[in-house]
Amino acid sequence: MIISRTPYRISFFGGGTDYPKWYEEHDGSVLSATINKYSYITCKVIPQIFDYKYRLRYFKTEQVDEIDQINHPSFRESLRFHKINEPLELVHTGDLPAGTGLGSSSSFTVGLVNILNAHLNNHISKRKLALDSINIEQNFIKECVGSQDQVACSFGGLNNIKFNKSNVFEVNPIVVNNSTIKNLEDHLCLFFTGFTRNASSIAQDQINNLSKNYTSLNELKDQVDLAIDLLYKNNINDFGKLLNEQWRLKKSLSCKISSTFIDSAYDKAMSLGALGGKILGAGSGGFLIFIIDPNFKEKLISKMDNLHYVPINFENLGSQIIYYSR
Length: 326
Prior knowledge:
Ribosomal Protein S5, domain 2; 2 domains; four-stranded antiparallel sheet; 12 strands
């Protein structure tokens, strides 16, 4: 049996500039961090005595003889991409719900690519892990997704990820002392709205509006450098205020990003002392993140009674094989 563990991520700044249709013309830049909530995949070879070749378990169970018969797109295309012919059982579990803006879909694909390479005795770099995952999601599954999540989940850590016109990405770790990381963690409040959504359909709307949103996307990208400078200065309060500006710009990209419920929850958090925040991922549901003075944090948590608070910390290891036994 082999087990992979792959973190989810929080995207703070620059989301939307990681879509290929944008960065192939204008370059892209994001600031993101992986968190101590994970996607787990187990893999084991099964005897040929069963009346199926592939057994896949997630929120459903599939037992099929051919890869083409698999319904789950990431399982199907990842197995096809790696030319897997042996009978396998693959099982996925996650710490948090899918479709909630934490990069869970890409965490799944990255973890799956990692474990299939381990099964094949291939030792791949984090860069190749990210590139193969991007290729599978964008070109094999043909999902409308960006490229930041696959990189973040592969590498782990607090990073500025840049994308250029040659489809090459650059990972620049944000090297700050432990007290700054702790300060940022202490200021964070993550809440689940209770709603999941299809990120691909929301992303398609944003992609369709790229030319119209040229100015906003450039501002979103420019704020990445401002945010990094604030982290180096350990100025988390202004980091939070800048995040409020990021949310304002993000909402302008598509009418599908926010909702009456999200706007109401956001306004309530701001009235309770939050400095800024945003909906994570494509929008329209999932998780809200806020930056708030630690002195007001408990009050915010207690008053946001229609949302579920999830405590988090950062992690810096990225996708790993945590158990390997033949």
